[in-house]
Design a protein that fits this description.
Blueprint: H1 2-10, H2 17-23, H3 26-46, H4 52-70, H5 74-88, H6 95-102, E1 103-107, E2 111-112, E3 117-124, E4 136-144, E5 152-160, E6 169-174, E7 181-190, E8 197-205, H7 209-227, H8 234-254, H9 265-280, E9 291-298, E10 305-312, E11 322-328, H10 337-340, H11 346-354, E12 357-361, H12 373-388, E13 391-401, H13 403-414, E14 421-425, E15 442-447, H14 456-468, E16 472-477, H15 486-499, H16 505-509
Parallel strand pairs: 2-8, 11-12, 11-13, 13-14, 14-15, 15-16
Antiparallel strand pairs: 1-3, 3-6, 4-5, 4-7, 7-8, 9-10, 10-12
Helix pairs in contact: 3-5, 4-5, 7-8, 7-9, 8-9, 11-15
């Protein structure tokens, strides 16, 4: 079933994805989807250079992976894709290498106090065809993120495995008293024969951080209780959701749901502490804030705090309505990707220059494809921004790259009344539904050397949109790769949005706000 889902996504029959996801095994299915994307990128860039024997072996492994996916045997599918990728990269598929791809390492805590112990858990994500010979010995080192720091040995493991699928292992490892900051827990397993198998897990160490977070959470709860007794405090409660997310990052990182290396804990907790004081005094800490910052809201779907990054231009005030762009990140990204990973903040530069508010939702899971709950999150972020800021409802725009490009097409098709124009980059959609967005002006960007999402996906959508009568501008970049076309296109996208000031009157009549 997953193999059908994958083909649906990239062949632009995205309408089927939501139903297939509901029948799949959540995280495992998304892991296979993400791996499949990487596998196809390697395949598209290397397959032509392989000899016939290797091409045949890759084809066999591909077929076996698809069959395993159809049977929901996601571990087996991942093994076949990893094997094929190793083959295409000229790597011998030895028992040690297979174990390295299969090894799954986690910690019971990823944000820890110095001079304590944490639990290192070792397992596998798929069954090995051939086990490494004998038992494996191991070492655990603590490696500081600071450049030039030497690894500190913290544990020796005498004998483990070799089958961590049948017998997962648990090892207690000490955190040194003087540790402070970001580290990698570096595990090295050494089989009796073959290459060592390394694995890294990131941790953050700081004395007193957990207690500081606990006190801030208690203060936030006290403020929330007081606000709920006041009928006129809805915007302050909205702001408190963002404050609580600053603190929730501790638990998310501690449980391994996000990488602790990506969180500045002192900054996040410090902002939360300051915001709690402001809110308790009746002040909205976001009311006059400009520039780039993170906010959050509490989802009505599952009562979770969901984050989004927002950019408020320096010229914003409530004397007039401002246009809003919703920008969707790609697979494996999050709410920070659009601002942080393209052209050194190029999207924010254009937003400031043209005077746009920009909001970047988090697409729930890394491979959500903006279906189901992830699509609802996008709609919720639009509503949250419209509650907090004075937004021109006739100038709400949608763009995104890669998975976000697919999401741009699909969300616009599902909600054609919301958007004044759209700008999918390196994506694709369902050409059969292009008539639903014929009233929406579209600028489409794709590179003709894209090894991740074939340029044909955008060509099909452009052709269908033109047949449906849409106003469309297509920029196909000669030699452009999957990622390289994105940042240079931002200028064209903002100019396109500038030129399309109003939602079509017919679209508004069809149920818009």
């Amino acid at each position: 079933m997953l193999s059908r889902m994958i083909r649906c996504i990239w062949l632009a029959t995205i309408c089927l994805v939501g139903g297939l996801y509901s029948a799949a095994s959540g995280q495992d299915a998304q892991q296979v989807l993400r791996l499949w994307v990487g596998y196809n990128s390697v395949k598209n860039s290397t397959l032509a250079s392989l000899d016939d024997a290797k091409k045949a072996e890759v084809a066999r492994l591909d077929a076996e992976a698809q069959a395993a996916s159809a049977s929901k045997n996601y571990g087996e599918a991942m093994k076949d894709y990893f094997h094929a990728m190793a083959l295409m990269r000229g790597m011998e598929w030895t028992p040690s290498r297979a174990l390295g791809f299969s090894l799954k390492v986690s910690l019971d805590h990823s944000v820890v106090e110095p001079d304590t112990s944490i639990e290192l858990r070792i397992g596998q994500i798929f069954k090995l065809d051939e086990l490494p010979p004998g038992r494996l010995s191991g070492t655990v080192d603590l490696v500081a993120a600071t450049a030039g720091k030497e690894a500190t040995p913290i544990a020796t493991i005498p004998a483990l495995g070799p089958d961590f699928l049948a017998q997962p292992a648990t090892v207690k490892i000490p955190i040194p008293r003087g540790a402070n900051g970001n580290y990698q827990v570096h595990l090295t397993l050494k089989p009796a024969a073959g290459d060592p198998v390394p694995k890294d897990v990131n941790i953050f160490v700081e004395k007193g951080l957990a207690m500081r977070v606990t006190k801030a959470v208690e203060a936030a709860s006290s403020v929330e209780s007081a606000l709920k007794k006041n009928d006129n405090s809805s915007l302050l409660l909205d702001s408190l959701a963002s404050t609580r997310y600053h603190l929730a990052l501790f638990d998310l990182a501690n449980s391994g749901k996000i990488d602790p290396k990506r969180v500045d804990f002192d900054k996040e907790v410090g902002e939360a502490e300051g915001e709690i004081k402001e809110i308790s005094a009746g002040h909205n800490p976001y009311a006059t804030r400009h520039g780039d910052f993170r906010k959050a809201y509490r989802s009505q779907v599952d009562n979770t705090l969901q984050p989004y990054r927002i950019y408020v231009p320096s010229g914003y005030d409530r004397s007039k309505a401002f246009p809003l762009i919703i920008a969707l990140h790609g697979m494996g990204g999050d709410e920070s990707s659009i601002f942080d990973q393209y052209g050194s903040g190029a999207f924010k530069v254009e937003a400031e220059k043209h005077g746009y508010i920009v909001a970047c939702p988090k697409g729930r899971e890394p491979a959500s494809m903006y279906t189901g709950t992830a699509e609802q999150d996008v709609l919720d972020v639009i509503s949250e921004v419209e509650r907090a800021y004075k937004v021109d409802l006739d100038r709400v725009y949608l763009t995104g790259h890669s998975m976000g490009g697919f999401g741009t097409w699909s969300i616009a098709i599902d909600h054609p009344d919301l958007f004044a124009a759209i700008a999918p980059i390196s994506g694709g959609g369902d050409p059969k539904k292009a008539d639903r967005i014929a009233r929406i002006p579209e600028i489409v960007i794709h590179g003709d050397s894209d090894n991740t999402v074939a340029v044909q996906r955008s060509r099909e959508m452009v052709e269908a949109a033109k047949k449906a009568g849409a106003e469309i501008k297509y920029i196909e970049v000669s030699g452009g790769s999957h990622v390289s076309v994105a940042a240079p296109a931002f200028k064209d996208i903002f100019e396109w949005f500038d030129a399309h000031h109003r939602r079509n009157e017919a679209a508004k009549a069809g149920g818009g706000r």
